[in-house]
Amino acid sequence: MTLILECRNLTKQYGQKTVLSGVNLQIPRGRIVGLLGPNGSGKTTLIKITTGLLTPTAGEVFIDGFPVGVQTKKVVSYLPEYTYLPLAMKVKDALHYFTDFYEDFDWERASMMLEHLNIDLSQSMRTMSKGTKEKVQLVLVMSRRASLYILDEPIGGVDPAARDYILRTIITNFEPNATVLISTHLIADIEQVLDDVIFLKYGRIVEAGDAESIRLKAGKSIDALFREVFRC
Fold this sequence. Notes:
- The chain is of the alpha/beta class.
- It has a domain at 3-42 and 55-90 and 146-229: P-loop containing nucleotide triphosphate hydrolases (Rossmann fold, 3-Layer(aba) Sandwich).
- Helices cover 34% and strands 28% of the residues.
- The longest helix has 14 residues, at 160-173.
- The termini are far apart.
- The mean pLDDT is 90.
C-alpha cells in the first residue's frame, strides 16, 4: 500500500483549547475518502495543516513521503470552503492564473468542463450565483493533475442538482493514482462515491476504514452511523 497522506500524533491547540488531539492517520493512493464530522470537529483545521496553511502544535504530516512544505504543495490541489477568486476576475483570467501558477494545470480539461456547464469564459465572478462560483472553483481544482485533491465542503452551498454535477465531476476527473479527500457533514449526498471514511469528533478519530466494511460491521449506512455517532 502506497500512502499519499500520513499524520503522526497530530495535535493543534489554540491556547487552552485543543482542536486536534493526537491524530494518527494513513490514507493510500487511488481512493475517494470522506472526512466526516459536524461543524467544530476539527476537519478544516486538519485540512489547513495538511495544505500548509497552519502549523501543528505537535506531531507530523507527510504527503507522498515528504513533510508538508514546498514539495507537497506541488502535488496537492485544494478547494477551500469559501469563495476565494476576486469578484472582478473573469473565468478566462482564472484559467490563465492557474496556468501560470500550476505546472500541472490542464487548460483543455478545464475548458471542456466549463463548456459543459455553459459558463462563458468572459463572465466575471461578480455576476455569478454562489453555486456557479463554486462550480468554477471546483473545475479549476479538479483540472490539475495532482496526487491529492482536498475538497473542503464542496457541496455545502449548492442545490441538489448542482451537488449531483459536482460529485460526477469529482469521480470522473481526478487522476487514476490520486486520492480525493472530501470534508463534509452532508453524508447522504456523497456516501455512494466514498471508498473510505474517517469520523472526526472533538478533534479525535473515532472511526476510520473501508466504507463497505464499516457498513457491514455496523449493519447500517454510513449516513445512519454518522447520525448515531454524532447525535446531540
